[in-house]
Design brief:
It is a multi-pass membrane protein. It comes from Glycomyces luteolus. The chain has helices at residues 2-21, 23-31, 36-58, 65-92, 95-102, 105-115, 123-140, 150-170, 178-200, 210-238, 240-243, 246-261, 268-286. It is mainly α.
Length: 306
Amino acid sequence: MQPTRDRAALAAFAGATLLAGGNAVGIRFSNRELDPLWGASLRFGAAALLLLAIMAALRLRFPRGKALAGTIVFGALNFGVSFSLAYYVLVYIHAGLGQTLLALVPLAALLLAVAQGQERFHVMALVGTLVAVAGVAVVSQAPLRADVPVPVLFAALGAVLSFAESAVLVKRLPEVHPVTMNAVGMAAAAVLLFAGSLAAGDRWVLPEVADTWWALAYVVVAGSVLTFVLYLTVIQRWGASRAAYVFVLIPLVAIVVSAWLDDEPLTLSLLLGAPLILIGVYVGALRGHERRGLPSGRPPGLFGRR
């Protein structure tokens, strides 16, 4: 049974990575016409409506009590806070440096999971994360000595911690269907994003360009609904720190897709950095070692029996 679960988790990991890799290109096209927070609000608002419709079609129960509160907190962290901070950061710093900082999510998730008694510390996970981060830095040619304003740096670290903590939180919640968790979580995040967009003075207009509509369709259906259902599956079966390695593979996929659709050149740095990323992900997440969750006595998480 375990090999079947591992194969399913690996397939979900690969699917989430590939779909999320296209998000960066979709957001790039969207941002050419729409203000960033307004585009994010449309994205998660539409994704929440789609998931709520799927919930109704599947006759899934709406969470209550602790499950509802935890799902709202998960959505606020993973979609609302994280994306608000990430969009703010990318206004001020190069995308390469932003990608490098987000590649720290696996390390942050590991440290948070260990601090909260959810996983044991593994040296190989630390080594894998550092190697993968180095690879992302090479691929993106991140300006590590750039003069980054202190508020922007704190916002970037806040996004990293928010993504990481939301992954750790999933393992502590009562059983909730992944479609339900994403539907409720994205609805809660959409409220925050709409409020942030209003406070930022964004123009609330609908797209007029066909490419923007196609980009929104992608980030809603593939980049939000499918990606995060798969991501939650990986978190449950592998744990927060291993699942977070999605964040270090996303830049590779994004660069390839961008070269295909947006004429971004493929450089020597990709050839040099890609092997480091793959080695880091293998060592930290895919290497054949036992699951890093705690042994018996740990209450099952999102999909397990209670």
